[in-house]
Amino acid sequence: MTVGDLVPRLSGVVAPAGMPGLGADVQDRAVTAIAYDSRRATAGAIFVAVAGQRFDGAAFAADAVTRGAVLVVSASPPPVEGRVAWVMVEDARLALAELAVAFYHDPSHDLTVVGVTGTNGKTTTTYLLAAIFDAAGWPCGRIGSVGYDTGGTTRDAERTTPEAPEVQALLREMVQHQRATCVMEVSSHALAMRRVDRTRFAAAVFSNLTRDHLDYHPDMGHYFGMKRRLFDMLPAGAPAIINTDDPFGLQLVEAVGRPVTYAIDRAADVTPERIESSLSGTSIDVRTPRGRLQIRSALPGRLNVYNALAAVSVAVALDVPFQAIEHGVAGLEGVPGRFEMVSSPDDDVSVLVDYAHTDDALRAVLGAVRELCDGRIISVFGCGGDRDTAKRPLMGAVAARLSDLVVVTSDNPRSEDPDHIIDEIRRGIDSSTTTATGPPYLAIADRGTAIERAIGEAEPGDAVVIAGKGHETYQVVGDTRRPFDDRLVARAALARRRARSCVS
Predict the structure, then answer these.
(1) DSSP secondary-structure letter at 344?
(2) In what order do the strands lie in the sheet with 291-297?
(3) Phi and psi at residue 216, in whole multiples of 5°?
(4) Is residue 145 domain-shared with residue 45, that is, in the same domain?
(5) Average of per-residue pLDDT across 227-240
(6) How far apart are CA 129 and CA 199, in angstroms?
């Protein structure tokens, strides 16, 4: 493609004639990439100078040109001096999305793309949907916080929803590998930064909205507004799948063209008529506008009932055969780091790992375990450094109410002092209980030691919930990313517990 092919796809160009200074020689230049980081600009790239939290990309335009960029697109005016080919636009992030979509030949038009947004449940819902689509013979790619699967390659995710050029490259790769469908977790950051603008979504899911990312969003209204953007992108007639047990979901229903609702506690289009759940799985009889389904899932707990209902609602709205829906859900054995059981039948305690890193998510996972476990609940968790500090005492209070023993530890402390983060969590524990009635708690900054201690303190029949990091295989301390996997640490601790039991 050439500059002349791509620049007409831009909206909001600030210029009388649309393309100032772009003579035939510039428009005929071949374009090899769309870059937003000057350090990654290569010969033939268009460099889009987006504004970051600390720097405006326009300051690095000269560096991008030195590295071979053939055009700069920016919301800033071109420099007074110099002969750089430059297009000024109203919104550089929108321009980045528009150029990426055009450069990769509109890949979302060759796929059925389902976007899933909300605070909790996005990852599990996308896994369930992918399993359903695969069972239907609609090969599915996946983009989300655990990783990116294009059908040809699977790679770890740097972020839940990558930047626009990476999103469109992944979608094009899915098309090349004969994927028919794609399920994508769409984060509020991605929506605020226009990473999926101009992507064609065939359906969208709203799971719920609870406190999270308020270090980025000024308030819950702004957070909800960004989530709502996904539904504003839907083509006419595309289904909007909405959890109406969530109050924000009730608001959203009024704003979309084709709502398909699901709920447990309210009347909705898709609802369970019967739910049976244990730590080994869940059985649900589901009523839908197309008839009744019998859902059998290896995923336990009420929160996974919601995830299953969301996936079923999408599949029903997109006319997936019922047999494929039932087989797809039944065939999914688990989701990495989401209510993931790491203990085995040989263990006398249950140990699970979950990504819950907000007070509401922690409440959901501990509440689900409380319903399914006859023994005590021991919770192990921390909070990330350099992130929303207000949620720390809230998580402490939830753990105190729903656990019999709380072990507070480090998550990803980043640049903060782990002991300071722990102290902020402990304030929530102390304020929600008294020493006479509240559960005991331990503060152990080293996460590995904390997990070992929690499993060692457990009595037969107890459940240990290790929350916060889920699928992550690292821990960020300062500027260092250290190898650390809750699941591996827990399995090693369980093995030592079994060995001690055999000796005794």
Answers:
(1) -
(2) 271-278, 281-288, 291-297
(3) -110, -50
(4) no
(5) 96
(6) 19
Q: What is the CATH number of the domain that holds 458?
A: 3.90.190.20
- Cβ within 8 Å of residue 13, ≥6 positions away: 7, 19, 87, 88, 89, 90
Residue pair 117/204 in contact (Cβ under 8 Å)? The answer is yes
| Under 8 Å between Cβ of 432 and 363 | no
Q: What is the band of 82 on the pLDDT scale with cuts at 50, 70, 90?
A: low
Q: Where are the beta strands (DSSP E) in 55-139?
A: 71-74, 86-88, 112-117
Query: Are residues 256 and 148 part of one domain?
Result: yes
> Is 205 within 8 Å of 241 (Cβ atoms)?
yes
- Structural domain including 236 reads 107-331
CATH assignment at residue 40: 3.40.1390.10
Interval 367-392: pLDDT, tens: 999 999 999 999 999 999 999 899 99
Cα–Cα distance between 125 and 374 in angstroms, integer? Answer: 28
Q: Are 429 and 281 contained in the same domain?
A: no
What sign does the CA torsion over 463, 131, 156, 184 have?
negative
Dump pLDDT digits (tens) for 314-323: 999 999 999 9
Domain count, the chain: 3
For residues 321 and 173, state if they share a domain.
Answer: yes
Contact 182, 112 (CB under 8 A): yes
* 180 and 301 belong to one structural domain: yes
Token pair in block for residue 164: 């626009």
Residues 82 and 12 in one domain: yes
Please tell me the predicted confidence (pLDDT) of residue 321. Answer: 98
Other C-beta atoms closer than 10 Å to the C-beta of 17 total 8
Calculate the alpha carbon distances from 459 to 218, 347, 348, 400, 437 in Å.
Answer: 44, 11, 8, 19, 21
Tokens representing 195 are: 């990473």
d(CA 175, CA 156) in angstroms, rounded, equals 20
Query: CA 134 to CA 128: how far, in whole Å?
Result: 10
Q: Report DSSP state, residue 355.
A: -
User: What is the rounded distance in angstroms from the CA atom of residue 249 to the CA atom of residue 73?
Assistant: 37
Given 285, 314, 331, the domain boundary residue is: 331
Cα separations (Å) of 359 from 15, 153, 355, 382, 388?
A: 49, 35, 12, 11, 12
> CATH number for the domain including 170?
3.40.1190.10
Same domain, 230 and 353: no
Q: Are residues 303 and 351 in the same domain?
A: no
Question: What number of other Cβ atoms are within 10 A of residue 23's Cβ?
Answer: 9
